[in-house]
């Protein structure tokens, strides 16, 4: 059981004061007038039905695997709707999450998010935190072929903060990000769009959906996107082609089957290199900084190509008003070939030593989740019970090579085109490995949501069995460093939460939850590592106004991570790793993350909409054998805040015009475990202008022009996760989109 010490108790008292303040604000807001926008009916995901034209979502089936109001989930949950994705002109998942509390949407500064979706939740790693339609979507630590999901095929994004192992199995206690894809609609939908922007941005999209027969028994949807762009870094580009067909069969009102497919090819993946802290955080010896457009690689060497395909289905059958069964399944195959030159260190005054990297990755994964939902009463208690079993099997193959036998490059006078040998074999690489990882997990879970008047108790438990196998054939400077691991882990995870639903829309809650993550490898004694365990206490209050479209939330939390790996400092403890003999590791590390999160979303009848978010995070490495003891984790800001205002003009002269603006602030971080490398805070401004021609000119109904600008004033800022792993953040981006719907 987690104990709150005196210092933590003071923090909780302060947090509870903030919750009380939010409650008083909520009561005042409840007097506002209301309006409800039209909805688009979407088949397949009950929680997605409401979000088509709405900024504010009211329900989700991610937090509890049953479709319930957000106020009934005893945990922090945010929903980014389709409307918000479009208003912000998001081209990546990270961009879509920029105004969401409790996470760092783009830990690498944003320019890297054009290749991968990395987010840290409550200061904890992104590993395994991404799901698509409720099924795990990312596998393998260090997977260069990790799939990325284009926002154009996304209906909404649900972000659950805190442990989710009770329903979804292994995962860090920071939370999960569930991407809900577009599904067939019962109403006809037609949309095409083209867009252009700075840095050579050019794209086109289409989205067609509707019934295939008069009775509406057969529905379809087909979305597609093609895009290309240059980059703020010279000699770098990105390209994408993606298509996502889906089909729904509804033989009756009680039964539906939706087939979901997708294919995506990325011939180029943007910039994903790194630079040293010297020249980014402070000037070089010549007094100048490294230019933001400097490319440390070589256009004749660097390449990235990824293909990903998936097929799956969602099935649902309701026997009667009390019983329902559901099954979701997906198979995904994702692969990538990567060659890159990365900076190793600075050779004064202005030369960079570089290394060549090679990777050939492929991941195949099958996930299936089957559950039954039943409602019943026992005396004064109303139950909604969920019982289920899920299964996941993944195989990850990787060839990886590393070589430092690369010509250096002069930052002030870069010369490209030098012959560089690809480290794609033991003969050409200093370090080479061929690895296969297999993982198989089966979990059984049970949850009961019990109502007694306005009181809601949510309690659940889950038992998981995970088999992990890794076989690595590797060498380091000709030395055989091969190794293998075969282990089985079992874990129980749980959650219990209590919520009280006031008639005025206020919903205070408290919850306790746990998590686990299997850890491959062994210590000096040859015993396999135990799972990393997490636990969290959370208390908060949510407010859903009765008289206008809004959602407000505040929470305080305390997350503890145990069994973290740290260096084994006992004498004579040497283990063979991929890079040769080195110190062993031991599971005595612990980390603590506690903080406060605030969120406000409102869409008012006056044409004004508001998004506000604030995060305070107190993070510390509480047990470690390394120099990070007592330090703040790398790249973890203490403060994150954002505010977005959108206004649609109501007068006849400017009818159809909508303007928006936002501000994003991220506090200072540390770029190294010792906390000696301080990365300054940054504040960025965004803006948008949209014009709906149809509101003023009936003959042009469905035609809309939008211009979105991010980092409007082209602020230069830096993100670091190590002394040689720094990058400039994304500079100004301006994109214009012309769309037509009919």
TrEMBL record:
Keywords (A to Z) from UniProt: Cell outer membrane, Ion transport, Iron, Iron transport, Membrane, Receptor, Signal, TonB box, Transmembrane, Transmembrane beta strand, Transport
Protein localization: Cell outer membrane
Gene Ontology cellular component terms for the protein in this record: cell outer membrane
GO molecular function, one term: signaling receptor activity
Signal peptide coordinates: 1-30
Residue stretches making up the TonB-dependent receptor plug domain: 70-175
Recorded topology in the membrane: Multi-pass membrane protein
Domain TonB-dependent receptor-like beta-barrel: 249-712
Coiled-coil residue spans: none
Biological process per Gene Ontology, one example term: siderophore transport
Keyword rRNA-binding: no
Identification of the protein by name: Ferrichrome-iron transporter
Family statement drawn from the similarity comment of this UniProt entry: Belongs to the TonB-dependent receptor family.
Matching Pfam families: Plug, TonB_dep_Rec_b-barrel
């Amino acid at each position: 059981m987690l104990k709150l010490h005196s210092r933590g108790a003071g923090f909780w008292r302060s947090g509870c004061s903030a919750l009380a303040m939010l409650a008083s604000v909520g009561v005042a807001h409840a007097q506002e007038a209301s309006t409800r926008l039209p909805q688009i009916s979407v088949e397949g995901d009950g929680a997605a039905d409401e979000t088509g034209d709405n900024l504010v979502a009211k329900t989700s089936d991610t937090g509890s695997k049953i479709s319930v109001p957000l106020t009934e989930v005893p945990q922090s949950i945010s929903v980014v709707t389709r409307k918000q994705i479009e208003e912000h002109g998001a081209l990546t998942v990270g961009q879509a999450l920029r105004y969401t509390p409790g996470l760092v949407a783009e830990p690498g500064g944003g320019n890297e998010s054009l290749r991968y979706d990395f987010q840290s939740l409550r200061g904890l790693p992104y590993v395994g935190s991404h799901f698509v339609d409720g099924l795990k979507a990312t596998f393998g630590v260090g997977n260069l072929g990790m799939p990325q999901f284009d926002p154009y095929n996304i209906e909404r994004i649900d972000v659950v903060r805190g442990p989710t192992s009770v329903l979804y199995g292994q995962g860090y206690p920071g939370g999960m990000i569930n991407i809900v894809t577009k599904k067939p609609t019962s109403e006809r939908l037609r949309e095409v769009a083209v867009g252009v922007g700075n840095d050579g941005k050019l794209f086109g999209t289409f989205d067609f959906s509707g019934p295939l027969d008069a009775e509406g028994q057969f529905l379809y949807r087909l979305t597609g996107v093609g895009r290309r762009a240059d980059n703020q870094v010279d000699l770098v580009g990105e390209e994408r082609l993606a298509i996502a067909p889906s089909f729904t069969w509804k033989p009756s009102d009680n039964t539906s089957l939706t087939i979901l497919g997708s294919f995506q090819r990325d011939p180029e993946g943007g910039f994903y290199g790194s630079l040293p802290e010297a020249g980014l955080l402070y000037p070089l010896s010549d007094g100048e900084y490294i230019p933001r457009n400097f490319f440390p690689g070589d256009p004749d060497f660097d390449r990235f190509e990824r293909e990903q395909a998936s097929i799956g289905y969602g099935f649902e059958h309701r026997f009667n008003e009390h019983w329902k069964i559901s099954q979701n399944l997906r198979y995904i195959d994702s692969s990538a070939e990567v060659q890159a030159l990365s900076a190793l260190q600075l050779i004064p005054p202005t030369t960079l030593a570089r290394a060549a990297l090679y990777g050939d990755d492929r991941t195949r994964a099958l996930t299936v989740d089957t559950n039954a939902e039943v409602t019943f009463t026992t005396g004064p208690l109303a139950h909604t019970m969920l019982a289920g079993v899920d299964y996941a099997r993944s195989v990850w193959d990787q060839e990886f090579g590393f070589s430092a036998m690369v010509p250096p490059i002069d930052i002030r006078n870069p010369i490209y085109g030098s012959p560089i040998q690809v480290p794609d074999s033991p003969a050409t690489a200093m370090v080479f490995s061929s690895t296969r990882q297999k993982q198989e997990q089966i979990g059984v879970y049970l949850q009961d949501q019990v109502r007694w008047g306005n009181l809601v108790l949510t309690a659940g438990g889950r038992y998981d069995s995970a088999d992990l196998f890794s076989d690595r054939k590797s060498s380091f400077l000709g030395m055989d460093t091969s190794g293998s691991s075969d282990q089985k882990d079992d874990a129980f995870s749980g959650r219990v939460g209590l919520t009280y639903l006031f008639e005025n829309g206020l919903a205070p809650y408290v919850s306790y939850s746990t998590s686990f993550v299997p850890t491959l490898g062994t210590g000096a004694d040859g015993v396999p590592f135990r799972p990393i365990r997490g636990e969290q206490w959370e208390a908060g209050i949510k407010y859903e106004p009765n008289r206008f479209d809004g959602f407000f939330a505040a929470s305080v939390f305390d997350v503890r991570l145990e069994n973290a790996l740290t260096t084994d400092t006992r004498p004579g403890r040497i283990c063979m790793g991929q890079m040769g003999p080195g110190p062993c590791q031991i599971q005595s590390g612990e980390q603590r993350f506690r903080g406060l999160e605030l969120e406000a979303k409102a869409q008012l009848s006056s044409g004004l909409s508001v998004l506000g978010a604030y995060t305070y995070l107190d993070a510390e490495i509480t047990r470690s054998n390394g120099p990070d003891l007592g330090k703040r984790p790398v790249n973890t800001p203490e403060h994150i805040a954002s505010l977005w205002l959108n206004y649609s003009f109501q007068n006849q002269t400017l009818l159809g015009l909508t303007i928006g603006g936002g501000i994003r602030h991220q506090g200072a971080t540390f770029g190294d475990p010792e906390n000696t490398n301080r990365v300054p805070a940054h504040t960025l401004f965004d803006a948008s202008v949209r014009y709906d021609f149809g509101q003023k000119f009936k003959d042009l109904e469905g035609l809309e022009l939008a211009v979105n600008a991010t980092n409007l004033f082209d602020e230069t800022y830096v993100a670091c996760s190590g002394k040689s792993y720094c990058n400039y953040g994304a500079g100004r981006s301006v994109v214009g989109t012309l769309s037509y719907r009919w």
